[in-house]
Write a structure and sequence with these properties.
This protein is an alpha/beta fold. It is built from 10 helices and 12 strands.
Length: 285
């Protein structure tokens, strides 16, 4: 198995400027190897979907470092192939807008319109990441964005791809402008190779995700693997294990800490610190 990048020296040349990578440590790599070698419990019945939805929801709510509320305002939960499917599903339904400096995937698609606070387009759905990838925290103007969206009849879809790798995030999803939220395990549990997560919605829309869930069309292997990782890692694992190393990297390289374990800020711009955390991990092993 190819290992995630580990810095070969403790120097700033290993700070990731272009594409900060999630933190995947030795233990997560061990779990991955166990799965590849057949260590995961096999369940090919439809019960695997039920178990995954129940256990992931409960797992999120047991975090002692983050607090997410308002999930009880959503009437339906569905399995998703990571937050990328969550995003793509919104684009499939028509025009979409995002805000400046959100997930670069939006720019690569070249399908949506990028707007700023106060200039949102009435009636056009908005996708916004929480936490926001360019700062590793909740968007500075999140309340203003949600209130503006409510005033302009904009449905907001919250991309929670980074929520599972963060600390000190306290977010209430009950704002009336929020129509759906997607959270995946890729960033927090090193499962970018096995994209799996959940989407919560306030209504049952007959879109691609709904149809795939209603007819049990989702792949079962990702759910099985996702459950294996949920059962072997706490929602606060990365910060509890590597928080001190993260703070040391930030102090040693003059970086401003964010709330995301793999990201810090250098002169206001995001840089990835995973390779340097891995260097420290292996230096102390």
């Amino acid at each position: 198995m190819e290992r995630i990048k580990i810095a070969k020296s403790y120097s700033n040349e290993w700070l990731e400027v272009e594409r900060p990578q999630p933190l995947i440590d030795n233990y997560i790599e061990k779990l991955t190897t166990q799965v590849i070698n057949g260590g995961v419990f096999i369940d090919t019945t439809d019960q695997i979907y039920v178990d995954f939805k129940k256990e992931m929801t409960a797992w999120l709510l047991t975090s002692k470092l983050n607090k997410i509320t308002g999930l009880d305002n959503f009437n339906r939960v569905a399995v998703i192939n990571g937050c990328t499917q969550f995003i793509d599903n919104v684009y499939m339904q028509g025009a979409v807008q995002t805000v400046t400096n959100d997930y670069r995937y939006h720019q690569r698609l070249k399908l949506g319109v990028i707007k700023d606070v106060g200039l949102l387009i009435p009636g056009t759905p908005l996708i916004i990441a929480m936490p926001f990838p360019s700062i590793g925290d909740v968007h500075t103007n999140m309340k203003e964005i949600l209130d503006e969206a409510q005033d302009k009849g904009i449905s907001v879809h919250v991309d929670g791809a980074w929520f599972t790798c963060c600390r000190e995030i306290d977010f209430d999803l009950s704002h009336p402008a929020i129509k759906s939220v997607g959270i995946s395990l890729s960033k927090g549990l090193g499962l970018g190779w096995n994209r799996i997560g959940l989407r919560w919605t306030k209504s049952k829309d007959f879109d691609a995700i709904t149809i795939m869930n209603d007819f049990n069309m989702n792949l079962k292997a990702p759910a099985m693997i996702g459950l294996y990782f949920l059962r072997n890692l706490s929602p606060d694992y990365l910060w509890n294990t590597h928080g001190e190393r993260y703070q040391k990297v930030c102090a040693d390289f003059g970086l401003t800490p964010s709330k995301s374990i793999h990201l810090a800020l250098r002169n206001g711009s995001p840089v990835g610190v995973s390779p340097l955390i891995r260097y420290l991990e292996n230096a102390s092993a």
